[in-house]
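Hello Y.,

Per our agreement to keep a running log of every chain we model this quarter, I'm adding this entry. I've kept the format consistent with earlier entries: sequence first, then predicted structure.
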Amino acid sequence: MPTPNALSMAELPYHFGVRVRVYPSTEQKRLIKRNSDASRFVYNEMVAMNRELFALRQTKCPIGLVIQRIATLQERLKRPATGISNIHGWLNHPDFDADMKANAIKNYRAAWKNFRQVHRSGFPQFHKRSARQSYQTSNHYQANKGQPTMTNGSVRLLDRHHLTLGKIGRLRFAGLPKWLFARTENTRIGTTTVTMDATGAYFVSFQLGSTQPFVTPSSKNGSQIGIDLNLDNFLTDSNGNTVANPHYYRQITGKLARAQHKLSRRAHRAKQEQRPLSQAKNYQRQRLLVAQIHQRVANQRKNFLHQLSTALVKNHDLVAAEELRSKNLLKNHALAMSISDVGWRQFLAMLAYKAQLHDKRFITVDPRNTTQTCHDCGFVMGTADTRKLTLAQREWDCPRCSQHHMRDWNAAQNILSKGLAVIA
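Predicted structure for the entry above:
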């Protein structure tokens, strides 16, 4: 098997991501903010140059000044990191991470690539300034340091609770899982992201790569299951089991509404007194409170989804689910809040990557008629002078075979059948 130093990060067969909470000093917070602002500036410069180039190319008259400007922009876009830094000299300040600019440009190009491949993602837009901060840096290994590990790169672990980061220096962090810290010598660190969320908490996210699997695959038992995601319950599986919907967001809507009303009043007062919101202490204190409420709900939902997705993947060799497009479902304003609250897309994404980690199979199937089809005889409601089932009809009898169905259980069975047909 090839050693990690013989392969690039992309060529390594196994990848894993981990995020740790860090506790920077006041000076380190200043450096993180400067690098985050500079990263956003570089990204926005790329957006501005390409938009200007597109607009100039629409000019029908071959004006010399326009032709010259097009040539200048094209030349600058060949080496954007140098071109932007030459015009904006402050980007050469020693506070800035050299890899920060390169990663901002790479992210812009990745956004265009996603737009060309999946038009739903939208073309790159300007990044607005917000309460959040984020920038990316790369990890570099020296040839004389031997095999790349988590402890000998420019981004490296010093011990169980300390790491070092380019330009930032030594950072204390909450710690890594024991099993991950035990394998630092056969794992390397790739792209590293430093973030601050809306509540003021700082995190460092590592992209890890290795020639050995990060998770020991669970033993296979031949179990296969289909799951139907719905709003009545979070999900119903093909065995008839249901998982209740926790409704985390709905539980705090009253508290959140009161906090947001208070925030709105403080913003209005600050504007009346002609004070910038960034300097209005009462507004910032209330903004932090609102952000903490949102973050608490997000953490509760994520914990619930992690536990459920892990249990499904470990206990079943095949998990089949319907392919959902939340963006389309959210157009139904009567159900938009309930759909956003359950986190279906996040749940399906967790199932996908966990199935890969545990060497299991996860597939999504076309949801068309899964709720309208009788699993026993295949009759489809809405045909042969019958009406389609409405959302309010949770139980129904098949007009052909008279079989009584629980709507969600029947749908889960149909989803499993479709999944088995795909892999057959």
